[in-house]
Amino acid sequence: MNRQQFLQRFQLHHRQPLQRPVLKRLRPAAVLIPLLEQHGQLHVVLTQRSAQLRNHAGQISFPGGRQDPHDQDLLATALRESHEEIGLHPDDVTIVGQLQDYPVISNFLIRPYVGLITPQRPFVPEQREVAEIFTVPLQDVLHQHQHYVYRLQRFIYDQVYFIPYQQRNIWGATAGMLRELADHIYPERKLFYRPLND
C-alpha cells in the first residue's frame, strides 16, 4: 500500500466512535503512528522499549508518552515525544488524522495520531527509553486475517490483540491501535481474526 492508496482509504470511511468506558483517573498521553514510504510502500515505524522502563518494559510501541504541563495539546505531546525518542523532527510529520483514545492498564488514556513522515535525518533512539527502532510494512500489519485475539475479562477490555511479524510479537495497546486502523482502512474485514482461546 503506497501513500496515495492509504490516504484514499483512510479518508473514504467515516470513523465510527467506539463504545469504550473511560475511567476518570486516567492520565492523558499521546503517541504518533508514523508511516514512512520506502520503495513505493508505506511502512510503520515502531520501537522496542527499554527493558529498564517501569511501564511496558521491552514491549513494542509507537513513539509517545505522557502529556507534559507545557505541551500545548496532545498533538504537541506526540510530536515532542517522537522527537525525543527517535529523533523525528516535528517539521517532518504531516498529520492525517487520529484514532480513538485508548486506555491502558498503566492508567493512561492514549490519543493515537496518524502521521506521514519524511525524515530528513536518520532515526536516533533515546537510549534510556528505546532499545531499538524498526519498520514493518504497513500492509502486513493491516491484515485482520493475521490478527490473533485473546478473550478475557480484565480492566475495561474483553479481548487483547496479537500481531506476529517475523520473529516479533506486537501486542497490547500497540496491536489494539493497529487493529483499529486496519478496521478503519478495511471495514469489510472487521470480523476477521484468529482466536487464541475458545
From TrEMBL:
Keyword Metal-binding: yes
GO MF annotation terms: coenzyme A diphosphatase activity; metal ion binding
Nudix hydrolase domain mapped to chain residues: 26-158
Secretion signal, residue range per the UniProt entry: none
Recorded superkingdom: Bacteria
Entry-linked PROSITE patterns: NUDIX (PS51462)
Entry keyword set: Hydrolase, Magnesium, Manganese, Metal-binding
Keyword Manganese appears in the UniProt entry: yes
Pfam families: NUDIX (PF00293)
The protein's required cofactors: Mg(2+); Mn(2+)
Name recorded for this polypeptide: 8-oxo-dGTP pyrophosphatase MutT (NUDIX family)
Organism: Pseudidiomarina maritima
Lineage start: Bacteria, Pseudomonadati, Pseudomonadota, Gammaproteobacteria, Alteromonadales
